[in-house]
Amino acid sequence: MKGKRRGMCSPVSSPSATSSGAPLKSNVGGGGWCKSLSDCLILGPKVSRNIKLVQTPQYHHLQQEKVEEREKELEKQKEMKSMYKMRLERTQNYLRYCLQVAQDNGFLELIINNKEKQQESINSSTTIIHATSSPQTPPQQQPHSDITYLISQAKLNGWYIEPHEIEMKEEVAQGSTAHIYRGKWRGYEIAVKCVLPEFFLLNENGVSFFAQEVETLSRQRHRFVLQLMGACLDPPQHGWIVTELLAMTLKEWLHGPGKRRKERAIPLPLFEERVVKAMEIAQGMQYLHEHKPMVIHRDLKPSNIFLDDSMHVRIADFGHARFLNHEEKALTGETGTYVYMAPEVIRSEPYDEKSDVYSFAIILNELLTGEYPYIQTHYNPSKIALEVAENGLRPQLPEQEDEKLEELIQLIQLSWDEDVALRPSFRAITSTLTNIHHKLIRSNI
Hints:
Blueprint: E1 16-17, E2 23-24, H1 37-104, H2 107-131, H3 145-157, E3 166-174, E4 178-185, E5 188-195, H4 197-202, H5 206-218, E6 228-234, E7 238-244, E8 248-249, H6 250-255, H7 271-289, E9 294-296, E10 305-307, E11 313-315, E12 322-324, E13 330-331, H8 343-346, E14 350-351, H9 354-369, H10 381-391, H11 404-415, H12 426-444
Antiparallel strand pairs: 1-2, 3-4, 4-5, 5-7, 6-7, 8-10, 9-12, 10-11, 13-14
């Protein structure tokens, strides 16, 4: 019959039987269509086998890449586990020490007795409240109460900015908690650090951290510290920090644009220029450490140091900064960036402003060598942290070809010493670098 439908795949040679047992000859090799499902199934494996042979090398290559990725990830997880285990042990030891000190000095008993008295007071207050016939609604807590004072100070001193006053332009940088935009305010070119709303919504202390960063910047008046122009103090939507616009970081000036790599992207700046940059950073940090109360930066690194139009430094990004009273110590874990982080910070031990001195030593060595710290090791950041904290790993020092490097190398080694007490103050560092700079000037005359 002419209009009869045929199977929709190529013919296959295979005898089959009808329900009555009579053989049914399929159109094998005769150019016809297959008459049954079995005909199609016979052809399938043959075609699949041919394709598989073509795809096998690529398939193996992809599998090998996946295996390598998994091995790297596994190695990273092992390193992280070792580091966190080390930190946990250190923290436990420190807590035991604190407990012992409290017990030896009678503080522990006072704390326990005070807690019991507080509990008795709470219980008696609860009884009184339950006895009243018409309980009162407790007063509502002021939201953002930690930022209220800052808002009043900003309005009083003229640096409170309404969001509509800022003309936003293009985005110039992105971070994990904020995006930075170029903008204009009252005719002045500015940088606007817009803290992401998610930072406030997902972090119960987000407003406090934001207020602390703004307050830290608002108190600084130094030529080598980033200048605050103003702020929008209405988180979560308008947590904006407005500063002078600076386009280049120390990292870009020293290494060029892009990520960490061994090969230089740009020529190494002149030696004297690099010493001047180190001297200016030290002066800015001396100002912060001698501020009342002291400001410790806690995340000092080349990407947080900017350069102005005259190529002078500006220490920036006070998101991790903290005010520290006289002889006070801060206890924290992962505050800062592993590559520039002091060993005592990695180990979650008490630390003070000398952790900034350690970070500066890594930067000074980076300025002298022109190389990223630990670039020769191929370690990832968590492995670097583990080696720094446990085995005293430090970046490779510059080759001492000239005696002018000798004094600088000694300064670096002192500044990143494991013994915090041996690390010099920024006042001493500034003095040393100033003398070295004067010698360089005299030698060039």
